[in-house]
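Sample pair:
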Amino acid sequence: MMVKKLKLLLLPFSLLYGRIMALRNALYDKDVLHAHRFALPVIAVGNLTVGGTGKTPHVEYLLRLLAPYQVATLSRGYKRSTKGFVLASEQASATTVGDEPFQYYKDFGSVTVAVCEDRVQGIKQLQHLKPELEVIVLDDAMQHRAVQPSLNLLITDYRRPFYKDFVLPAGLLREPRGGARRADAVLVSKCPENLQPDEKENIMRSIRRYSSPGAPIYFTSYRYGEAVGMGMGTRPGKEVILLTGIANAGPLVEHLLKKGFIILQHLAFPDHHHYTLQDLQRLQELLRKEKHTGASIITTRKDAVKLTAPTLATVTASLPLFYIPVQVDFLNNRQQFDQLILQHVKALEHGQINK
């Protein structure tokens, strides 16, 4: 009840913010504010919602799909310590480029990874430094209207679809629902594997109230891999302490419970949390408690790359610490989606697309 009352109180502010964002979008749509277009394919992955829709696994899916090409990713580099354009190198860390870009750098050796608040300047720098680039994937760029991507992919969470949400601060939308019209395709993420056809139809009907006519809609889920050790031990025990610094740990919790793990405690830090020695010392103290005797620590890949920082590595290596890898899986029409991406890149290579 209190939550509903608070949302009602915040609605006037949401209406004001929504109108400001709608005006901004209209100025770009009418070319009063200029959006830069680039000669090479620029694929934007984004959402209308603040955090937690699953952009990172979908970007990784694209990077695997586009492996035959010279590919770069460009992100803002949220909560990094640096400013301006930074090209990830051997000296990079989650602190200098941001956790998600650092994850791309660690997991995709052939991909060029860069960060820049100004995506236009970021793309120009990438083209200057890497003239051989054939495709750029923009991470979290739905609202960065200064760049006109050649292909715009919108991710919406099955559990928090944009069409049921409200603009900030009453809801979690960064802009009004009509922003979905800019999407060339919509992906409904984190779906249950047994999603029924009638529910799919209802979801598609709701999305099409706001999306562009003809924009295809895909349904994806998460496929979790086996735990990967980072410290002591070869496999985790059934009793675990869950350590996360992500926007929405719900799907991972469900997966672990389904697999028979017993979550003794969940240390849930804010999204993009930078881990400290104090955080790891807290874990050590928990493991010394009688009720946690023999417990393992489970975390995400996004958190894992931060826990390998030089200042933390020694302690990390002494912990029974494991991460669970995750990949995107399509419930259906995977080949259709792959073909959409690959044909788009091929067509733009030959100058057949003028968006």
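The chain has two domains: 2-69+134-222+331-349, 228-324.
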